[in-house]
Design a protein that fits this description.
- It is built from 11 helices and 9 strands.
- By secondary structure, it is α/β, with parallel strands linked by helices.
- The protein has 2 domains: 108 residues, no CATH class; 164 residues, Rossmann fold.
- Helix 6 links the parallel strand 4 and strand 5.
Length: 314
């Protein structure tokens, strides 16, 4: 079997000769769990499992146990943060078995099998299919406490409503020098500020485009809460888009097709064509960055923001 870190070769990273999730299911059963969940590809990649966890609990008629390990993505989590932040306060989760405390080889199997399935729909649908489930709702799930919600509302209390959360960062976003890496955000921000307050969520040690926006150093759970407390989210395709969708917050999501193709094709040839069907949410406003139409896209985003909020100045 090819090493998953080798350069792209058809089937080397995604499609294995074994049935989908066969090793994952065997390991979960071995350690008394209902489902095994990958942990190594980023926050959004874990969030797409949350709907299956909730629906599986409803199908079984009881709370479920998870076999997984703390989040260990290359981006998206601060050192020392809660590695199980996504699962905290989920009423459908009975217990979490930390695979790293048993045998590190367990997560190697689960992570390797993460994408070894038919990619016939959205990732939430793809995962659910192999657990005999049709998702009740096409969105992830997150559960906040009353105190977390209160903290976020207090953090934003000095910003007049409506409040827009911006996240102009993504590991698959435009590179430095491209219009939407920085310049077009600088054009967009004052247009949005005509009828709303803005703040930015970002990793303070890694992401800083000096946009002059209010920003709070946060834990993952605090970031979730700030997105929940927002009226609208404008972001690149990133974990923030998944979080906003989890809370049913209106979201305008920007997609860089050139960069996404590079990422997808590195893993599996031909999968780039399915980017939007696998990773975007139809309830969001999904904006594809088209070369040569950057100024027009600024106007489109502003118009959609006004329509989504309904209270911005015309």
């Amino acid at each position: 079997m090819a090493d998953p870190l080798e350069p792209a070769v058809d089937g080397a990273r995604l499609l294995l000769p074994t049935p989908p999730f066969v090793g994952t299911k065997q390991l979960a059963a071995q350690y008394g769990c209902d489902i095994g969940i990958a942990n190594d590809a980023g926050i959004g990649n874990v969030l797409v499992y949350t709907r299956t966890v909730d629906d599986l609990a409803c199908k079984l008629g009881r709370r479920v146990s998870l076999l997984t390990a703390p989040l260990a993505p290359p981006v998206g989590i601060m050192p020392g943060d809660d590695g199980f932040a996504i699962w905290r306060n989920n009423p459908y989760v009975d217990r979490i078995v930390n695979a790293e405390e048993i045998d590190r080889a367990i997560m190697s199997v689960i992570n390797r099998e993460r994408d070894n399935m038919a990619h016939f729909g959205h990732m939430i649908e793809n995962i659910a299919y192999y657990y005999g489930i049709r998702p009740r709702i096409l969105r992830p799930s997150l559960y906040l406490t009353k105190d977390e919600c209160a903290w976020a509302l207090n953090a934003l209390r000095d910003l007049p409503r409506p409040v827009i959360c911006l996240h102009p960062h993504s590991n698959s976003g435009p590179l430095p020098g491209a219009p939407w890496h920085l310049d077009k955000w600088r054009s967009l921000i004052p247009r949005l500020e005509e009828g709303a307050s803005l703040f930015e969520v970002r990793l303070h040690t890694l992401e800083d485009k000096s946009l002059g926006l209010t920003s709070f150093p946060t834990t993952l759970r605090q970031m979730f809460a700030l997105v929940w407390a927002s009226d609208l989210v404008v972001c690149f395709d990133s974990a923030i888009a998944h979080v906003a969708t989890s809370f049913e917050r209106p979201a305008i999501v920007l997609w860089d097709p050139t960069r996404k193709v590079t990422h997808e094709e590195r893993c599996q040839r031909g999968f780039a064509l399915a980017i939007l069907s696998r990773w975007s949410y139809p309830q969001n406003t999904n904006v594809v960055l088209l070369g040569g139409h950057d100024d027009e896209l600024v106007e489109i985003i502003v118009r959609h923001a006004r329509e989504r909020l309904g209270s911005l100045n015309a």
